[in-house]
What does this fold into?
Amino acid sequence: MRDSQAVTFLVGLTGGIGSGKSAAADIFGELGATIVDTDAIAHELTAPGGAAIKPIRDAFGAEVIASNGALDRAAMRRRVFADVQAKARLEGILHPMIRAEADRRSAASRAPYVVLVVPLLVESGGYRSRVQRVAVVDCPEEVQVKRVMSRSGLTAEEARAIMAAQVERSQRLAAADDVIDNGGELAALRPQVEALHRKYLEMAAVS
Ligand code: ADP
It folds into this structure.
């Protein structure tokens, strides 16, 4: 419904892999914002019984569906690697479903504002135009690599390959209305998020 959309103040929260988006979102959530996480929605859609499973099976065949009924990510990755059009087809199925579910959850929120966590927000115009404010979680690239390595057990090379597929730090910062500096200790994150929370409460009240 247009009306409920119009009164939902939406903050897009983004940042490169390992920058600390989830850590920042957790604090916004504790402070009372509704968190809508597009990665979490993507996982739900592709989990056993998820709404994207049937269209993905119809498009790519049963070989990309695991025996438990979830998307077989490794099999899908191999398909995407072997066939350049497969990625676009998969995204053509998933992205509209993710956006629709994000819209639904945002509109259903009764919190003062919604934090929409979108890893590739700067890369995707669809989300930029949906949010009133862009908050970027930032840290030096070397710190990102270290965090990704210790969280996921990836090698530095693998971490850098993922980062290379994302927009550059400078471009992300150029798109930011607000920057959350997460290059330091975790303890330094909270006061910054608290300050932004106060600001967003004020902005949401007059929007
Ligand atoms: P993202 O969601 O952007 O990929 P996360 O919030 O998951 O990033 O953070 C990546 C990893 O780094 C996690 O293991 C998290 O606990 C850790 N982390 C986040 N912020 C800090 C920080 N300021 N200092 C140390 N570790 C951090």
Summary: The first strand starts at residue 10 and ends at 14. The chain has two domains: 1-33+112-201, 39-110.
